[in-house]
Design a protein that fits this description.
The protein has 5 helices and 11 strands. The protein is an alpha+beta fold. The protein has 2 domains: 72 residues, RRM (RNA recognition motif) domain (Alpha-Beta Plaits, 2-Layer Sandwich), CATH 3.30.70.330; 67 residues, no CATH class. It has a 5-stranded antiparallel sheet, covered by helices on one side. It has a two-stranded antiparallel ribbon with strand order 1-2. Strands 8-9 form a two-stranded antiparallel sheet. The N and C termini lie far apart (68 Å). It comes from Gossypium raimondii. InterPro entries: At4g02000-like, DUF4283.
């Protein structure tokens, strides 16, 4: 059957068939996980701001997850792509991070130990943000990286996250230090 109910290690358990999992994943195909960095905002205020920024062509569903994360389900592919690619999004003077939903997403997941190595693909890592190093952002990372402007900027990085891989968009915020760094 599609649903198998039982007991494992003294606890009730439920197992769903691959077919049911595929239906669930398809239902989540245009879902985004978002988090407003550095500020807590009420659900309704954030929802109103998302509607005004993204201007979706059809209604969206926003669900409050734990750890100040939200799940956003969009109906149209064009709205989904716009939300993921047209940022960075600023809400009440704070960055709103967005990423595609993944069946492996967890609001309590620690950031990968290889964050510094990923940053070094861009340039010399000067600083990991304190919130990043204490894993308060989950999968979102903020780095200070020294970039050689005589070389092309890295705009995407392929991140291997077995058994899946993804391209992560790199966003730059420039501070020019001038002659002092030569």
């Amino acid at each position: 059957g599609d649903v198998i109910v039982g007991t494992e290690d003294g606890m009730s358990s439920i197992r769903l068939s691959n077919r049911v999992h595929q239906i669930l994943y398809k239902n989540m195909s245009r879902s985004i996980v978002m988090k407003l960095l550095g500020r807590k905002v009420g659900y309704h205020a954030l929802s109103n701001k998302i509607y005004s920024l993204w201007k979706p062509s059809n209604p969206i569903t926003i669900m409050d997850l734990k750890s100040d994360c939200y799940l956003v389900k969009l109906q149209e592919e064009v709205d989904y792509v716009r939300a993921l690619t047209e940022g960075p999004w600023i809400v009440f003077s704070h960055y709103l991070t967005v990423q595609p939903w993944s069946k492996y997403f967890s609001t309590s997941q620690l950031f990968p130990s290889s964050v510094k190595s990923i940053g070094e693909m861009i340039g010399r890592v000067i600083k990991l943000d304190d919130n990043t190093s204490s894993a308060l952002w989950g999968r979102f990372v903020y780095l200070a990286v020294m970039v050689d402007l005589n070389k092309p900027l890295v705009y995407r990085i392929k991140v291997d996250d077995p058994p899946l891989w993804s391209y992560e968009k790199v966003v730059y915020d420039f501070v020019f230090l001038g002659e002092a760094m030569r």
